Amino acid sequence: MNFPSAYLLVSHGSRDPRPEVAMQGLADLLRDRLQQQQGQSSFPMVETAQLELHPLPLHQQITAFASRARAEGCDRLQILPLFLLEGVHVKEDIPAEIAQAHDILGTTMQLDLRPHLGSQISGLSHLLQSAIQAVQDSKAGDRQWIVLSHGSRRVGSNQVVEEMANRLQAIPAYWSISPNLEERIDQLIQAGHRDLGILPYFLFPGGITDAIGQLARERSQRQPELNIQLAEPIGTTPELAELILALTA
């Protein structure tokens, strides 16, 4: 007899309440899509967890959800890291937490770590292109876009941002490492650009995207000749839920 899977969406965690609200909305969208796909009479079990800034460590969040899922007849828990970069959190921290959860659960629940969201390069590039199109205007043809990611110090982790930027005919920049946003703006000004676009490669609005907006406004005030267009982060959409669905097994 085949028992159904349960699904756990893992995010970084934030002190800002907006990302968690968005995660809950994304869990609802994924639950609906799973139900459509599986034809189940009851909703599939989909919950969220946080790697950091949660009262419980991730492995305890996993074991608690696994116990609830087992009581509902699930024997497999698919863990979906909603991270855009394959940094230390994806390669080391989350697997270590899952290993701790496995030690606690034993054979009562199969824990299946799925690929991280950022591995969906083609689908994510389409979502970013949609974000650009949503704010395009009459100057769109002359605008130089910057794809702004958080960035990772892990070797090779930022290559996906460079590939994404190439797909969008944009240039990459990073919030936490160099080349940062200010450096890229300076380079583009020196190259003769005055109409710029900033595309935040972040899932949801939060403290960092607020700071990006503030930086863009301050830069425009200091240099009125600049026209800086700011796109929205990816956001909670059926299209994003579809990309997550494709990561399930």
Automatic annotation (TrEMBL):
Pfam families tied to this protein: CbiX
InterPro entries tied to this protein: CbiX-like, Sirohydro_Cobaltochel/CbiX
Keywords: Lyase, Metal-binding
CDD domains: CbiX_SirB_N
Superkingdom as given in the UniProt entry: Bacteria
GO molecular function: lyase activity; metal ion binding
Name of the protein in its database record: Cobalamin biosynthesis protein CbiX
Organism: Oscillatoria acuminata PCC 6304
